[in-house]
Amino acid sequence: MIIMRDTILFKIGGSVLENKNLLKSTISQITPLHEESAVKRIVIIPGGGSYANLIREIYKIADIGDELAHWMAIYTLNFNGKRLSRLYPNFKLIEEINDILHSSRIICIFLPFRYLEKTDELPHNWNVTSDSIALFIAYKLGLKEVFLVKDIDGIMDSDNNLIKHASTKKLRELKIRKIPGIIDDNFSELKEQTKPLDPYSLELIDRYQISCTILNGEEKKLRISNYFQNVSVKDKIFTRITHG
Q1: What is the pLDDT of residues 203-244, one digit of tens each?
Q2: Distance from first CA to last CA of the chain, Å, rounded?
Q3: Residue 68 contacts by C-beta under 8 Å, 6 or more apart in sequence?
Q4: Angle at 217 between CA 74 and CA 137, to 5 degrees
Q5: Which of the 8 DSSP states describes residue 104?
Q6: What is d(CA 109, CA 31) in angstroms, rounded to the nearest whole number?
Q7: 235 vs 54: CA distance, rounded Å
Q8: Which domains can be identified in the chain, with CATH numbers?
Q9: Which site among 5, 55, 102, 147 is 20 to 30 Å from 139 CA-CA?
Q10: What span, in angstroms and rounded, lies between the C-alpha atoms of 156 and 181?
Q11: Cα gap 26→34, rounded to integer Å
Q12: Concatenated DSSP letters of 141-200
C-alpha cells in the first residue's frame, strides 16, 4: 500500500536525466504514485546536468562573472525541463508557484528561471545548484521534505556503509573528517560536481527545517517505489538529511 501524501517534490539530477534507462526507471516509479490517487500533486524539478557543467567551464575560461554564470546555469534547468516535457507530454510545464497550489491534481515540471529571477533570494555563486533550488521551491510550496533522485543510493560512511539518517551537523562533521562522498566546496574539477548535495543545501535545510532524502533512480532496484510503500524502514534504501 502506498503512503498517502498531498504533494511531493522530486528533483531529478542531471545524471538521471541524461541516462535513458535511469530516466525511464525513475518516471515509471514516480507516475504510479499519482495514478493510484495516493499523491495529488507531483512536482518535478530538473537538474542542469552537462549543460550546467558547460557553464562552469565557460565561467572558468571566459571570466563571465558570478552574476551571469548564475542565471545561465539556472536556465539550463528550464532547458532540461522542456526536453523532459517532450518525452513526457502529459506532464504540465509550470513557471509559477500559485499554478501548482491551485491545481487539485497534477504532475508538473517546474521551470524555475522566471520565478527565481523574480524572487532573487538565493546567492549568485556555485554553492547553489539545483539541489538548493529544489529546497527553496519546496519551502515556497509549504512542503517539509524534498526528494533528490540521483544515480547513487545515498551518502556512504568511511566503511562504505549507507548512512540512512544524518543531521546537517553530522554531515558537516563528516566533511571535516573528509569522509568520501560528502559535499565539497571545491568546484575546480568536474568530478566534484557529482557530490550528493551542493554546499548551500545544508544551510537551507536548517533555515527552513526541511528534510532532504536521496533516492536512487536506477532501474530494477525500485528504490523510489519501495520508499513510498508502507513497509519497514530497514527494507528501504535512502539517505535522509534533517536539520539540527
Answers
A1: 999 999 999 999 999 888 899 999 998 888 888 999 999 998
A2: 31
A3: none
A4: 35
A5: S
A6: 13
A7: 38
A8: 5-152+211-234 (3.40.1160.10)
A9: 55
A10: 7
A11: 14
A12: TT-SEEEEEESSSSEE-TTS-EE-EEEHHHHHHHHHTT-TTS--S--SSGGGGGSSS-HH
Q: Are 204 and 241 in contact (CB under 8 A)?
A: no
Q: Which three cell numbers stand for residue 234?
A: 530497514
Give, in degrees to the nearest 5, the angle at Cα 158 between 169 and 217.
Answer: 80
Check residue 192 and give its pLDDT.
Answer: 38
Half-sphere exposure of 39 (CA within 13 A, CB side): 22
The single residue listed with the C-alpha cell 546537517 is: 168
Which pTM does this prediction carry?
Answer: 0.90
Judge contact between 211 and 241, C-beta under 8 A: yes
The grid cell for 242 is 534533517
Residue-by-residue DSSP string for 51-74: HHHHHHHHHHHH--HHHHHHHHHH
- Low-confidence residues in the chain, pLDDT < 50: 1, 185-194
- Specify whether the CB–CB gap between 2 and 33 falls below 8 A: yes
Cα dihedral 10/161/166/176 (nearest 10): -110
